[in-house]
Protein 1
Amino acid sequence: MAKDHYIPQSLLRRFVDHDKGRNLNVLDKLSGKMLHPAVKDFGSIKDFHTLSNDMRTEFQGEDLPNIETILNLKFEDPAAPLFERVVENSSLGSLTSDERQVIIRFVALQWVRTPGRIFDMRAYLASSFGEEEPARNLRVFGTPSIPDPIRDVGLLGIPGDTEGLANVLRRAHLALALAPGGLAVVGDNPVIALSDRELPDYLYAAFLVSAPGSDAFLPISPRHILYLHTPPDAITGTCGKTLPTPLELSIDAMNYLNGFQGKNAVRYVVLPRKDQIATLEVEIAKQQALRFNFKRAFD
């Protein structure tokens, strides 16, 4: 059985708590308990990227694509050294246009492939039809041990959907936000998408990750948060600008984003420090009355 990570270990290693023997501080939203797994044991599901038994039986001996290998080679591995450089320098200033797109492709992957996206969609559909929300479970594709064409279509679509989203996000502006105190958290559904537009009830908010006027955030360390802003007048096919100078977040702005990471998570949130749990629980629970104008950085 393979242990397939939907959050790369290279990213999670930056969130380890050295006082905990280099383990993670993970808040379980359902139980309220704090867990301390090793990096290799978190952000993964057994055989998450394995095609169903039906597909493997039907195409026995054929060259079936290895989803895990494709995602590693095409999206994760090219981005890893760039993130090391970005974190070390706290700047995007040295990125070439090709390197910029490598980072955007990684953000797109983390939005497309995490179980939280599928869970959110199923929860939205359930509420739309007056049905009960599905159990908060990250194994959204079920098990590969039974014939399951829906599972296979979903897994086979991840690389193509990622490329398509990355091509649209090419038009977005890219910045780096710095969290004071290195206290940014990351959830099991790590890319959060926000819009300053009032959304009708029938529109699923997660589809706005690349819509004009939207913001998307992905923490890559407790101090470093990738920020993509798609301007209202963005045109597909164009390339946005990259801000070389990082944005210094206030404590309030950081807590605001941490709260959305917590709300966005299906079940688990990783905290750099165990003593953040009280603040995070407050930010998750309270109504967000204040909107931070991150877009002003691009004026």
Protein 2
Amino acid sequence: MKKLTIRRLNWFLARQKNETRRSRSRRRKLLRVSEDLFANSAIQQQLIIQRVSSPEQKAAPPQFVYVRQNRTFRRELIIPPETFSLRGDYDNVVSFFQHLRDRAYNIPPTSASALGVDFRSIKKITPGAALVLAAELYRWQIFTQRKLVPVLQDDWDPLISRMLRDFGLFEFLETPDQRPEPSPSEPPFFKFIKYRSGVGVTPTACSDLLDHLSAIVGSIEAEKFIFDGLVEALNNVKHHAYPDNSGWHGVSSGTWLMCGAYSERAKVLTAAVYDMGVGIPATLPRSGLWEQIKGILAAFGANDDSSMIAAAMQAGRTRTGQVERGKGLPIMMRLFDHVRGHLRILSGHGEVRYTSGASEIGRIGRPLSLGGTLIQWQISKV
């Protein structure tokens, strides 16, 4: 070991001083960049697009510096797109979910607290997208053993904050400095019912959800058929969504989340179920209706995911167009033989939509997979 001379000691002190000066300079530069970045909405939107368009990219994430209690923290921000709707901006919303799953899977547990979620960008949120977001934050919490830290809550849209709080989403966020919610200037577009979650078939959860919706909406037409559809969705989760050796899910086999919402402006009631399993198209080849489904696919002239889901829905209907009992997916369609509205299913790379009175099931192919199955009923009250 070298002897510590006065000259060497002075060298160590000078190096430490220079390093401290460089560190302060870097922090000041980051702070200026972050302030300029979020002062310019165009640059902010560009950042959002960059963050969600390439979820598999392993490049260094953007850093954001904010000051609280005279200390400076550096976090990677997870920023959702402005229109948080699977109908209005499917590709960007699904890319956001893929990025969130990628971070949960790859980030070291000791680094999870270095991530923050910033919902300032959200201007619109719909029940289906909110349900998938709750599921992904639930999976994040289980997988990392931590909650995401919300940042700059004072700048969030008050309507969005209120809807997320009613939905129960803040249970998945670390909010030690939770403040009174600011009063929005107008009522939210959706009145959210707090999400439910569970494993296996739980009819009481379906009844409870409908009871809370009735408290907001009043009497619900054809309520029995909504109940049957919800229970059938949970049956599909239990028996098909999580087959053995089907890969990483990050949650217990059979896990589902359920939600309800009502739009006073549009007079539309929504109920939805989401699971994080392999998706309907992956389970159909093992179905007892597979031979019949293959015949329908041949008539469609396509065998993509949306066509497979539509074929499974059509396979259980009689020649008169009525749904036979005990036929899985078609049970979820029975409601729209009695009320106006539509059933929407997103699974794998496919999306289907069955509207009351329609002669055909609408099909849409999606370039990105949702990462689970979302089944959503929307009922018109007018």
Protein 3
Amino acid sequence: MPGTVLLLAASPVGRGRLVDAAAVLPVLAAVDPAVLAGTDTANVVELADPLEPQAVLTRLRAAASAPGPLTVYVTGQLQLDRRQRLPHLALARTTPATVRYTAFPWHWFREELRLRAPGTTTLFLDLHADPDTWDLLRTTPLDTGRTVAVYGRVAPPPGRRSTPAAPAYMKALATLLRSGRRPPLGQLHELALARTEDASAGLVLAAAPPPAAHDPHAAITAAVQAGRHSHADHLAAQWEQAAVRAHGPGSEEALHWAEVRADLAMFAGDPARSCRTWLTVAAARLAAGQPADAPAVEAAVDRAHHQWSEITEPARARELGSALADLRARVPGRRAGALEHVRRQLRRLELQTQG
């Protein structure tokens, strides 16, 4: 089965740049795609110094939905959202004051990759941290989800350096792969670290996911890939019911499986059901006292909004649009004008009905 490779290199333009992330792309691009992916054939998507977090999200989401193995190479710098104290991957327009709106939230990686089966997803990371993020990472590790293998390093904040650092780990990794051979991932990681100057000063990342015979997500993913969408939803519904019985309807365990079912509806081509489920999840999180700008709340409303935009049946779009507008008034999210977009589309639907 063909693999998918996402090459992402991002860092701010100007004085805030800690690492010359894009410098590694020509070296990675010179590697055979099959070697980058560890498969016989592969599709490669390259993102060099992207401007908008939504553009990165779109590419990541498409890569995550591909059926074969996925390998993501990320080079860049981490900055902290000062309000929520959440790490973000800085993009071209990011400044310390605009992290929340111009950078890519790190938890979006976890959200988009969470349904992939263990053993099918690998992240190679060469990241440089600003002082605030570095302090956070000393007690709170980066979370990419339990099904993803992660290898790489996070470099500490620079001293009084006048020029951006080089992405030494990722360049070493690319140089090793240019030989045409991809050794076992753990060995490849160790070889790259050995060639990385000052690697011992940073945080080393090396984590493999658990086996796929003990994770229900693997069976669900396999069902989706085989086109057995009803069976996948049935499996997820069983786990949701078990979580409700064991932990309660508003528990994280139960809400997780509701979110899985919302994604499964999307994969099945049922945007109305997906939208409705995401709206229910968002409302449940708010009712449980989670703030409107909590990442899980924002993600649920954003996904409901995206799925609502895919609905082609006017009656269902009107019904769900009203509920979405109510939620958008409470959860505006990170995209300017999201609430007005819903209201504008609802007015258009009303005019279609009158006509």
